[in-house]
């Protein structure tokens, strides 16, 4: 493909993507293919001679689209938002064109510098304490990770390294292995599975802290476990709090937990993967109170801030804790120019535009409002038992009109309803509720 064809094909692709997104609600939101469907649709080996580009494009509809779950459909209410936006997509295209790999400042100064400034812009939107903002006299700063899972792991590894050094400095007779075997990390029993995975990768014990009736961890619960473990000669070193748990959008009480962690030299990391975007609105910002006690904080603009995947922003209180542990801010060496997406989106929407978007999805479309529109909408009452609710979900999924996923809360099978797509409006939600109600009624009639 030469530049002339690239120009032509590029315009065609932009048209294809715009048409796809503008007409997305006409497609069934989820796929009905069987596992392994794709292999039989394409050759078993790569072509020796070049394929024709027109054929490649035709195959997008033939091969790819049947197996796509349309995350940006207004009828997609599963998992969490993965909202994209046109400015973010254009910035990603530019990133691909520039193709620089910004692993050091010299490898592409703009890549490193824009990222630092964008993390400051976003940190200021969230009203993070000054020590997280690189452009102040603080010792902290921000970095873009690929995912929240990576941020949680980075924080755990940094905490492990910091604790090993601290304990060894005071007890030179202890070997690194001996200290390591005593380290204990903690998180909520409601935390995302990636938190426990971080402890497996980091090869440390992790204990799950029980939650209260709102599925939040309280200070007293963590304190009790720390006391038990210290009495048993173990070394608590890391606690991962969640602001906005995946299942029910619960908020751990970080104003209680933070001082306990600080006093015990326990690194407090905050995972606000999907709810974090909401903190740019002053009315939701109180949910972040207690952030001043955190050693690190992370959320995903790629979930709910119109910056398409991947863009997971992480701030640390002290840069040296991360850089001192790894000589680097992240696990991979290479880094894409992801801050371009943030820059384009922040400038195209402005803070007010982004706040308006959060409010639309989080508040206006919620009737009655459930916090951040995320989860929490329990259809359990509709049909009354776990078995029937499972059947209801199966029928909803098979209908392919709307897409939901379940979760378990206190042994109850819950249908989560998360408003995800940028294009979702009240008419889509009304349609979804009519659909759920109709299927529920049918199910109840059959079972009476
Ligand atoms: N933490 C929470 C609270 C989440 O809800 C999720 C995903 O839904 C994750 C972590 C994992 O996010 P990522 O895919 O960015 O690793």
TrEMBL record:
Family: Belongs to the group II decarboxylase family.
Protein name: Aromatic-L-amino-acid decarboxylase
Organism: Cyclopterus lumpus
Keyword Lyase belongs to the record: yes
GO biological process entries: amino acid metabolic process; carboxylic acid metabolic process; catecholamine biosynthetic process; serotonin biosynthetic process
Keyword Repeat: no
Residue list for modification N6-(pyridoxal phosphate)lysine: 303
Pfam families given in the database record: Pyridoxal_deC (PF00282)
GO cellular component: cytoplasm
Keyword field: Catecholamine biosynthesis, Decarboxylase, Lyase, Pyridoxal phosphate
Assigned EC number: 4.1.1.28
Pathway in which the depicted protein is active: Catecholamine biosynthesis; dopamine biosynthesis; dopamine from L-tyrosine: step 2/2
Gene Ontology MF: a single term: aromatic-L-amino-acid decarboxylase activity
The protein's assembly and partners: Homodimer.
Cofactor(s) the record lists: pyridoxal 5'-phosphate
């Amino acid at each position: 493909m030469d530049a002339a064809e690239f120009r032509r094909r590029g315009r065609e692709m932009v048209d294809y993507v715009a048409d796809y997104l503008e007409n997305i609600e006409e497609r069934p939101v989820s796929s009905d293919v069987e596992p392994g469907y794709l292999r039989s649709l394409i050759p078993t080996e790569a072509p020796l001679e070049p394929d024709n580009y027109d054929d490649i494009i035709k195959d997008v509809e033939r091969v790819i689209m049947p197996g796509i779950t349309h995350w940006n459909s207004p009828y997609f209410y599963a998992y969490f938002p993965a909202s994209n936006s046109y400015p973010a997509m254009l910035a990603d295209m530019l990133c691909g064109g520039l193709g620089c790999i910004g692993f050091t400042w010299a490898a592409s100064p703009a890549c490193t510098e824009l990222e630092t400034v964008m993390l400051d812009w976003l940190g200021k939107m969230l009203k993070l304490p000054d020590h997280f903002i690189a452009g102040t006299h603080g010792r902290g700063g921000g970095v873009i990770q690929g995912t929240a899972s990576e941020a949680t792991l980075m924080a755990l590894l940094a905490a492990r390294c910091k604790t090993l050094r601290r304990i060894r400095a005071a007890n030179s007779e202890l070997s690194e292995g001996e200290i390591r075997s005593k380290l204990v990390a903690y998180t909520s029993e409601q935390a995302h599975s990636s938190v426990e995975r971080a402890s497996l990768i980091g090869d440390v014990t992790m204990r799950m802290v029980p939650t209260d009736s709102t599925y939040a961890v309280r200070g007293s619960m963590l304190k009790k476990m720390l006391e038990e473990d210290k009495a048993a000669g173990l070394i608590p070193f890391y606690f991962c709090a969640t602001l906005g748990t995946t299942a029910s959008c619960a908020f751990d009480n970080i104003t209680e937990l933070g001082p306990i962690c600080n006093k015990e030299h326990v690194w407090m990391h905050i995972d606000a993967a999907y709810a974090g975007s909401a903190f740019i609105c002053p009315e939701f910002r109180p949910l972040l109170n207690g952030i001043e006690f955190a050693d690190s904080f992370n959320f995903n603009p790629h979930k709910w801030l119109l910056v398409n995947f991947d863009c997971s922003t992480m701030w640390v209180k002290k840069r040296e804790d991360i850089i001192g542990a790894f000589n680097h801010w992240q696990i991979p060496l290479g880094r894409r120019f992801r801050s371009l997406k943030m820059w384009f989106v922040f400038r195209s929407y402005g803070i007010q535009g982004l706040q308006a978007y959060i409010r639309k999805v989080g508040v206006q479309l919620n009737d009655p409002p459930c916090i951040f529109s995320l989860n929490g909408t329990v259809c359990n009452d509709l049909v009354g038992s776990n078995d029937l609710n499972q059947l209801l979900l199966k029928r909803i999924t098979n209908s392919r009109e709307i897409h939901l996923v379940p979760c378990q809360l206190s042994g109850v099978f819950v249908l989560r309803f998360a408003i995800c797509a940028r294009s979702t409006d009240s008419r889509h939600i009304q349609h979804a509720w009519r659909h759920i109600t109709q299927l529920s009624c049918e199910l109840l009639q059959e079972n009476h």
